[in-house]
Amino acid sequence: MSMMNAALVESYDEPPHLRSIPAPDAAPGQEVVDVLAVGVHPATRGIAAGKHYTSPRTLPALAGADAVVRRADGSLGYVMVMGAGTLAERIVVDPAAAIPVPAGAAPALLAATMNPAMSSWCALRTRVPFQAGQSVLVHGATGNAGSMAVKVAKHLGAGRVIAAGRNRTRLDELPAEGADDIVQLTPDQDATAASLAEAAAEVDVVLDYIWGPATELAMRAVLGARTQHTRLLDWVQIGGVGGDSITLSGHALRSNAFRILGSGFGSVDMQSMQRELTELVAAIAAGGMAVHPRPFPLDQVEAAWAHQDAPGERTVILL
Ligand SMILES: NC(=O)c1ccc[n+]([C@@H]2O[C@H](COP(=O)([O-])OP(=O)(O)OC[C@H]3O[C@@H](n4cnc5c(N)ncnc54)[C@H](OP(=O)(O)O)[C@@H]3O)[C@@H](O)[C@H]2O)c1
After folding, report:
1. Which is the closest atom of ligand 1 to the Cα of 314?
2. Tell me: the pLDDT tens digits for 204-263?
3. One Pfam family this chain carries (predicted)?
4. Pairing relation of β-strands 258-262 and 61-62?
């Protein structure tokens, strides 16, 4: 039996461990691919910690949620197999689900960038009736996904993008990356609400990476300041770095043309996802949208899990 190296989740309370496991065989209709690069995203960590809605129910399980791979014909592909695992020298994929990657694209950069970038790309392209010229508030714009959302919204034609976040240093860099206005989220709730009301009262779409109490405050501020109450406001829940739930008054939903929806794995059908990710891979490969990869070899998977990314960087395991 041929063996290979892999990173296995053996306990939700520990990082994945390097193990030697049997190499996979492809069933009819499947393909064995070589894994080149795997991003360690918040979702990748959450899945391995048993805290994500796609976490494996039984252990041990392969770690990793997505990967840049080399296919049997030598071409590159990007695959997303949330919950099934990608952190092994070889994995089995459905060939129809492999997103084509242009020759010459850098696997580590794509592995670092695809997950944060797809959050806003799929939201704007598939979840809301976003049109060029509309204005977008990115709530939680200083992380990798939030700052990519600023670039993606502009790339897709947003007329005005407002970036709101905690980290002042990172926030100050965002106008150079496309933000038309910035709002700092501070512990002073009145000041934060006033700044959001002034900058974002008339936005069309909110891409929300924070949720929790910060979102309750932001919703009150934006809805309370709106002058055109029947102008549609789509508030898209994408991330939960500030909490997993909110309390929402019925008044908020009745007093404005206000819709709340989510965007993520499970809320976008696979056909749309395939189409959009193919376009996104091409846009990233063309340059201008990148998260900086922080590489680790597979045999340092535990160190990779312990590493805390600096703003703008993403841990990537290279195989
Ligand atoms: N649904 C999807 O398709 C999708 C795809 C990708 C990511 N996501 C989700 O989006 C979120 C962000 O992912 P990421 O890749 O950007 O992670 P990241 O690069 O680690 O960034 C997280 C950011 O969150 C900020 N933050 C943490 N707590 C906060 C709070 N209470 N208020 C304001 N900001 C806070 C931190 O900013 P400071 O510098 O201020 O600490 C940090 O910059 C995660 O929940 C992730 O799971 C969803």
Report:
1. 19
2. 999 999 999 999 999 999 999 999 999 999 999 999 999 999 999 999 999 999 999 999
3. ADH_zinc_N
4. unpaired
